[in-house]
Amino acid sequence: MKLFAAMLLIGASVHMAWAAEAPVTLTVLGRSTLQDSQLPLSPADLKRLSAKKQLRVGTSDPDYPPFDISNHNHEFEGISADYLALIGQLLTVPIHVLRYPNRTEVIQALKRGDIDLLASANGFEAADPDLLLSDPYTLDQPTLVARSNDSPLVDPSLAGKTVAMVDHYLPLSAVQAFYPEATFKLYPSILNAIGAVAFSKADLYLGDSVTASYLINKSYLNNVQLVDFSRMEVNNFSFAATRRNANLLHLVNAALQAIPSSEQMTIARRWNAGGVSISGTHQVQFSVEEQRWLAQHPRLKVVINEDFLPFTFFDEHERFRGLSADVIAKISLRTGLKFDPQKGTSVDAMITQVNQGEADLLAALTPSVDRERRVSFSRPYLSTPFVLVTRNAPDSPNNLQDLSGKRLAIISGNASRETIERQFPTVQIIEAKSLADAFSLLAKGSVDASVSTLISARYLIARNYPDQLKISATVGARAAQLAFAVDHASPQLLSILNKALLSISPEEMDELTNRWRSPVVLDDSYWSKHRAAILQGFALAAVLLLSACVWIVLLRRQVLRRKRAERALSARLEFDRVLINGTPHPTYVRDRQGRLLLCNRAYRQVFGVEDERQLLGTTVMQSLLSSEEQAQEYHRDYLAVMAADEPMLRDRLLVLPSGEILTIYHWILPFRGSEGSVDGLIGGWVDVSDRQRLVEQLHAAKQEADNANRAKTTFLATMSHEIRTPMNAVLGMLEMASRKSDQGVFDRAAIDVASGAAKELLALIGDVLDIARIESGRQSLAPDSANPYQLLTSVARVFDGLAREKAIALKLEIDPALDRNVLIDAMRFKQIIANLLSNAIKFTAVGEVRITAHAPAAQASQPMPLSVSIVDTGVGICEADQQQLFSPFSQAGKQQQGSGLGLVISRSLVEMMGGSLELSSTPATGTRVTVRLVLPAADAPPTPACDPLDSPPSLALSVLVVDDYAANRLVLSQQLTYLGHEVQDACDGAQALALWNAQPFDVVVTDCDMPGMNGYQLAQAIRQAEQARGEPGCVLLGFTANAVAEEKQRCLEAGMDDCLFKPISLDQLSTRLQQLQSQYFSNETSGELTGDSLDAHLNTLTLGNLSALHTLREELTSATQADLQQLTELLACDDRAGLAHLAHRVKGGAKLIHYEQLILTCENLEAHCAKEVEGTVLVASTAAMGHCMQRLLALLQAHASGQSL
């Protein structure tokens, strides 16, 4: 059949190829006539018809069956031809048909007026605005066609589907708008389009139901089926005419309306060929409840007996087939329901499934009284007689009378059972689960006959029992009726099924049943037909295979045992090999004579031997040990172990041929043979050299720890002595001064002695801190411009009095080349020379101490190679003491007259400066210490410092002193009062903050570590208050005994301006306050701007031009106002880069008018932005700069208003 369809497609293509450009005239072959052909027409209509000699109707190639069909005799038939014949008869006008090559050309011919009408026009032509359609002569129901082996369930959206369609069926744009997720392919003819589906070129065909049903029912393509209706709104089939021919279309409509309904039905039946109804009978009228039920149950489960041929079965592709399947497909088209088939077993089981809700309906069942008690039956869709089936043998019974006393197989619940039992009570009834089981019992001889329907019997006999069974007679007077069965609780479903069955015309139902009346059945499954033979063959093959397997197992068992033993032995040998060679420690085996039998790879690697055969059979005395004495010792141990039958384990030395000495943990174990006697030994060792070295290092570390502990004890004793000595002087002299003051005597000498002792104590503490900083790597240098000549002279002058007290000479020999400026940390350099000079004087009883400094002559711009030697005639230092002399807290000999820190600090500082310190000494002769440095040249000499107490009196400042220790508050307050400043004090941070809020202070000096609010928190609180008030920042100084650089950095980060270290002398305090006054509280001559100085600077810039001066003042005023606004905004958003840029720009303007105070605040703000300081510090710097800018703005505005500031 597929070949025939292909030939049709090829013929259609050839027909298209030879179609000429000119239209072909066709003869109308109409099969319908009317007895009464009188059509009442108006005189105008009659006049128009008389003018018409013929009615020209156009059609297109290829044919559109069953509407437009042509043949090789140039005859035109089909639905359109039948209606055209009737229209010609009614209008008494001959019909002349012209066939054009394609639909486009025939439409163009209609518009040109070459033809009057166009047949089989629908929505495609209705979309053309130039055309009009007549009344429909056939309804158009869009239908979807798919392959029979595809699922009949189609997604209504056709998502992802490829859809074939005739190019002139519907406008493509309308179809794509309705199905946006589908892909459409257009074909010139319906055969091409449906053929694309049949041959898997497309998934679905979209076309009208009439043509699709016609082609399928005529078996042109027998592997496709109608699966669903489309919901598109379309035009029905009509005749088309142009708008200028509307009068003609009016006559055609009158003729169509005059055709009786009976004749229309005749035409529909003639060309529908049992397919889908054309007259619209698909539109089954359901009640509101039934429509609601359909909406709630779109899919139903139908249970079937897969062996109930030809009504229900599954083909080789597991597709539901049979007469019942065709009827269900018709019902699906009419109701929109989708059915999911489920396999059932026996009739009782399937009925139970329906009763329990596991299935919605049973596809095929004959009603009976017994079954009607359990389920409800629809109206029957097939009637067929019951027949008696017997074996194909001469003695088989021919009718029910012959079955007296014999066995009859019948399906449980069969409608004919009651009749048989009543009329033939002697027949023995045997119930079967299904018809297939009943026929199987009959074929095996278990029963003598069986009852079945005629159609089923023919199929089953032709399919499975062609030579075994036969149909002998009919049974009963009533035929078997096949119907659907539903549960009693589903009346809506039963009503829907009945209405759908009623909508199927008898002709359509006959067409369905005629397909399945033939007794010839092509096997749908090879397995079903040959199942028994296949199973028997498999069973025989399984027995033979099992016998062969048993025989093979018996034959191979011995082989497997032997191979298993061989594998075990090989595995054991491999295990032994891996165990010996894989062990990283040397292992060996020797016999009773000490000869080597076996050794592993690690053993050979120790002695550097690759080939094991070089060592096998040799004794230890013949091996590669470098010492014969050692070899004999090992050999004696081997013999002793085997003689005593006791293992030996101990640490010993092993000297290798290379001379390397290993410390090994050596073990020797005797081993016994099968007779129980010692046959040899197994030995090996573990290299514990690393462990031994660790033990030695641990011992050395313990010694060092003990020495360090002793050094610590010595240091503590020394520190106790060094601290108590000056403390004795401090306490004693202060006590004496206190007693004498009670007597009204001021003892200046006692005060001076106590002060000197306290300074010595402070220097000692500084030395200890220096050592701690040096050992932690936190000591740093601050090189500056200084004169080495002056520095050495200064240090010598300090120690000159000490040397005179001891009656020794202090001589100074300095090269004049040192009298120039270099870059050096002057304080650290003097500390180095002072430490060395102090030691020299301390350990010299008689003689002299000489300081010699030398530097080669060079230009001032070149570096200075400096060499300073300090030579004494003291006790000297022995060689042993010199080794420990540069260790912290160590001293030479028994003359413990110091902390032992001076030399360590000095050498560390010299090395930090990039130089060296060398010591050479001879006991009882003296010591020489030489310091060598290379000092870079400096640009300018430092300004000589004057005595701060001799300086002119400074500006009196208002100072707030904050310290929780009363003595410190008292000392600092009296120092500040002595220097002429106004002082108030507070004992903690909270009290200080309250005083600061009550009155302004120029300077706040606060201890850093206090209970409650500490100094850092106080500084942050003050800075935040200043920022909130918009006030300029006061000077905040930290005051702490923690004299390290980190503490100063912490103070700066908290918002302070600087940090002072306890104790502080009056000179140091005065010097620092003078620096602060020059920086923050300078008068006009030190950088403060006045109106007169501003005028002078502006006059200079404008060269006295009054106009330019006025313009410059205005620009400077507006720029300052804008900069103040920008300063506030940048601080609010913490834009440090913007603040730095603004400070740099303002500094440039300040330099033009020589506003030194503003320049200084700009530079401070730039530095703070670059260092990423804390917010409080940044706020203070910004406030200081803003204060100066406000001062400048006030001066400018005062001049504009004629005032003065």
TrEMBL record:
Keywords: ATP-binding, Cell inner membrane, Cell membrane, Kinase, Membrane, Nucleotide-binding, Phosphoprotein, Signal, Transferase, Transmembrane, Transmembrane helix, Two-component regulatory system. Its EC number is 2.7.13.3. It comes from Pseudomonas fluorescens. The chain crosses the membrane at residues 533-554. It is found in: Cell inner membrane. The keyword Protein transport does not apply. The lineage of its organism: Bacteria, Pseudomonadati, Pseudomonadota, Gammaproteobacteria, Pseudomonadales. It comes from the Bacteria. It is an enzyme of class 2 (transferase). One of its GO terms (molecular function) is histidine phosphotransfer kinase activity. This is histidine kinase. Residues 1105-1199 form the HPt domain. GO terms for cellular component: plasma membrane. SMART domains: HATPase_c (SM00387), HisKA (SM00388), PAS (SM00091), PBPb (SM00062), REC (SM00448). Residues 718-937 form the Histidine kinase domain. The gene is bvgS_2. Residues 958-1077 form the Response regulatory domain. Residues 647-700 form the PAC domain. The modification Phosphohistidine is found at H1144.
